[in-house]
Design brief:
756 residues; 6-stranded antiparallel sheet; PH-domain like; 24% helix; 30 strands
Amino acid sequence: MLRVPGMPLLPGTQFRDLTKTNFAKSQTFLNHYGIAMLSDREAPKLVDPKGMICDINCPPPELPSVTALNVGPKLPPWLAYDKQVLCFNGYFKETLQEVYHAPYLVRKVKIFYYLEDGTIQVTEPKIENSGIPQGCLVHKQRIPKPAPCQNEFVSILDLNVNTNIQIFDRVYHITGCDLFTRHFLNRAGIPVPDPIEPPLDPTIEHRKRSGIKKSVTKDKKHLFAQFLEFDRKILKFTCYWDDRSEYGDVRNLELCYYLSDDTMDIKEIFPANSGRNGPATFLKRGKLPRDWQGLLLPGEQTGVTVLNVLGGGLRSGRYIVDILGSEKQDFKYYTDKDLQIGAVINVYGRSVVLTNCDSFTMEYYRMKYGIEEFCRLPHPNRFDDRIPQKPSERQLPPYNGWGSYEDSEGNCISVEPKPPQADFKKFITLDKFVLRFGAKMISTIRENCERVFIVSYFLSDDTIQIYEVAERNSGFLGGIFLKRRRILLPNQEKFSSERPEYYKPHHLYIGASINLKDHIFTLVSADEYTLIYMESHPFEFPLADVKTVMNKIREAVRPNYKNFIAKHLSEVGSENEPKLIRYETLKKDLIELLGKNITDQEIITLCRYYSAEQSPPSSCNRETVRAAVQSEIRRNLWDDIDHLKEHLSHINPSRKNFLPEAKLRCTIKGCRLPFTAELIDDMFMVLNHNDLGEIEICDFMSFVDVNCSPAPDIAPINYAFELCPKIPFLHKGRLVNWNCFVQHLGLEEELINKTD
């Protein structure tokens, strides 16, 4: 660039030299002390003792064992000895503290000495399966000499065959070197001794003496040898699967066995006008197991097996992973020797019969197995003269533990499973019907045996709830012991295809022992409602059927009737009064007579039926009930008597004097009369009835019409208990009418006939 003198270096004040053609930047350090610095420089030459020039990288063909004259180029070492390394073989001994049969271990190394900068590197060749971290032991660096010469570094004069060198507290013994190192040291005037053999390793010698040898592997066949030999060679068989059932047929199949990898596939041959369409693949290509026993359950097949090596349960045991796979099963697959005409193979639960094969398959079996006869088997037809098989019942797969049994059954029956439907009719009929029993726990712990429980059985959905009664200073808080749920009967197979059985009402009775969630309870009592319900449903509760109990006692008493009657002859009163005995006395006699063949429920049922106690009559005053009804109407300010009369005329178009009780109850609710359920029951109890049990309409209107027939006011009372006292009969069966019991036995006439 040209520049106008006196002008600043601004754009536009400089001009380009149009005659210049070379724009390269000038180089300053092309040569340094006469040495070219470019990468394409030639290697320096050395002059041998005879005056001949030779390459420094190529040693002379013949060098004497004595030192040559120190003649060479005067070049810096980093250039004269670039990429020239002396290599020595050596070893060191490593002391073994844990091996009793070998005091030390011999480890072989290579020592590299870099001539350009005098650094040393020590490496150990890697040996497979040695168990020792090998590789670079000492990185490339200058090695200081041991004390007292720690200020000096190891040089080329310290390295030679059959010498020791200490590198950082480890002594290496040099046993040999390579050819270049030997020539270089000889030219430098350093004599190199002959190489020596390293010492033997005691560990290896001990293994040889112990007879531990490396396993000699046999010549294995190449992985692709079978593929290369039998590629595109296929054994073909014609076969069939007899699926003749209610809607089944005989399936014509074709089996192909691939010799290259011992796999097979099966295709279905659709006959003309069969009505079948879709893929013809009956079995996709793969190895077919011989012993197939069905699909495994979830969690039954795991990748890792855990072994308990010490035993003793979950806490005191010791668990390890089964590395050897001791419980791993070896699956056997079908091979070519299992396939022949007439053979039946199991294709995942389907029996497939081989009937014929092609010419290549015949020749293969003839050459390999020496089979000469190949008799073709006939294919059966759907319309053959054969006894038709009855359609087998549909068997569901076993329960797998997920969800309830009903959910699993719904998943197997329908593609789109629906939630299990409850018995709605049973729910509506038996809603709020609950059987309650008092129970005790059977346990080896004394405190548990003293706990009191209430077992509630809900008849609407067959569920059970257990409530614990809290007792003071017992140590137990009480409350819900078991939430409401259905409970399985004990001793049932859990993972089964059949629907399990749950506790039903007939399983619960006084004296029964039930197993509820790993706890055993004994039912010792029941409330009055439960006993009445069981006695009113004898077909559902056979132990509460008096006729069945009396038949059992009659058969047991018949041989010893006189002795049984004589026990209670002293407990008689006057002739007009009935003979009464206590419940405990009769229970003791029946247990002595029948033993374990009679239960507490049967004894209680019998004593309640022949009970000497009488229910107290219910005292209900008509005028008191009428006053209570009108008092309730006035208190709630009800004044819709016209609407009530209109409704009665609508439901009674024929003007009858009496109406059923159900219609009047609906009328009371429809007209919103302010009566409770107990007050309605008391009112219907005192109203006039006909022979059919219907209620008189005029009498009903006189009760509710405050204006026409007012009643006197009464003091506020509890309509549920005080208006018509209903005393519960809680001690029924404590005294038994002996005369009635003996009369119903009916054995007096048999005894008289025998004496006559």
